[in-house]
Amino acid sequence: MTRKQIHLAAHFPGVNNTTVWSDPEAGSHIEFSSFVKLAQTAERAKFDFFFLAEGLRLREQNGQIYDLDVVGRPDTFTVLSALAAVTDRLGLAGTINSTFNEPFEVARQFASLDHLSAGRAAWNVVTSWDAFTGENFRRGGFLPQDQRYERAETFLRTAWELFDSWRGDEIAADTGSGVFLRDTRAGAFSHHDRHFDIEGRFPVPRSPQGRPVIIQAGDSDEGREFAAATADAIFSRYGTLEAGQAFYADVKGRLAKYGRTPEQLVILPAATFVLGDTDADAHERAHLVRRQQVSAQTAIKFLEQVWNNDLSGHDPDGPLPSTDPVVDGSTIAPGRASVRMYRDPLATAREWRQLAEAKNLSTRDLIIEVTGRQTFIGSPSTVAAAIDGLVQADASDGFILVPHVTPGGLDEFADKVVPLLQERGSFRTDYTGPTLRDHLGLA
């Protein structure tokens, strides 16, 4: 029986709660050498693609820059274009916002990247939900969720019109005398709706993939439907067997109504990992990593995001605050996803108090408990078996790996886990085609 082939991608962490800044091996998240190191490791291991998230505004809390995160994020297209020159086969995926950009500009940038990389570009299409981020842009403000996805889908389809405005039979015609004439239709576009009113001529000829690979990350019903209609790959937050299978079946089950087959959408949960010589070693190391990820200061900052109040004087090694969260329509941490995640702070506080009491947890221990754990922990053989098992059981098609140390945190996985997946016959030993669509098995 033919085994499903696992898809793997490498996420450059940037701004997130996974990174262990205090690790002696941690490096810059801005210097180009860090991007090169992680990308070349991923390519050495035959990963499908390298992935960059996006940070459109520095995070703030209590009216100040959030100093427990990286300060700064280079431009996505600049980084990926530079990486195209130092990699040969690795896909290059960038997160570009559809709420504050325009189709012509984004399509031109992705078409250019696809040419520069010989067909390795991917676009993670996202929307923005908060006015805080919108203040950096001309349009400002934000859109309700239904309008965000409506604009995003219109944005994407408009970009497709631009990508498709150059067709092979329109580029040039031989007059018979050795003189080549450009077809007057090449690059012509005209799109008019309530979101975009544009027409003209697209300046970038059709790229090696025709269109970049489209990635989507929404977990809402609107996000899943958007992915089923338009995406080539979708991120998933579900890394366990039951939850993963439910998400997998739901999203793949939506494809038929759009004339698509299950093979035309790749489902990729984000995943962290901690390896050790033995499973016991790995679990001991994972415990240390979690305490490094959630320092005493980080625990208080996270607590403030839910309590919506200055808790700088609170003891992280003591119990949760006896006071309730402030619910007055304001927010102490504008633009933070955790504010959205805990929509009912009073209910969250009750649940956390019950959990802390039941397990005798301090504030810091409680935050460690509720803010996530490593997805894969164990010896290389244990981790390889777990990844392969989830993919073969249709809980995912692969994983986007997020190392906790940048830029060298992927090396151990590449050297110790990938060979075991290859021995199982579940992962490629070499690339079979030049483009990212080839790697992902997409038309």
UniProtKB/TrEMBL annotation:
EC number, UniProt record: 1.14.-.-
Annotated spans, Disordered: 312-332
Gene3D superfamilies in UniProt: Luciferase-like domain
GO function term, MF aspect, one: monooxygenase activity
Protein name: NtaA/DmoA family FMN-dependent monooxygenase
Pfam annotation, one family: Bac_luciferase
The entry's keywords: Flavoprotein, FMN, Monooxygenase, Oxidoreductase
Protein family according to the UniProt entry: Belongs to the NtaA/SnaA/DszA monooxygenase family.
InterPro entries hit by this protein: Diverse_substr_monoxygenases (IPR051260), Luciferase-like_dom (IPR011251), Luciferase-like_sf (IPR036661), NTA_MOA (IPR016215)
Luciferase-like domain: residues covered: 21-393
Organism: Amycolatopsis plumensis
Signal peptide boundaries: none
CDD domains per the UniProt record, alphabetical: Nitrilotriacetate_monoxgenase
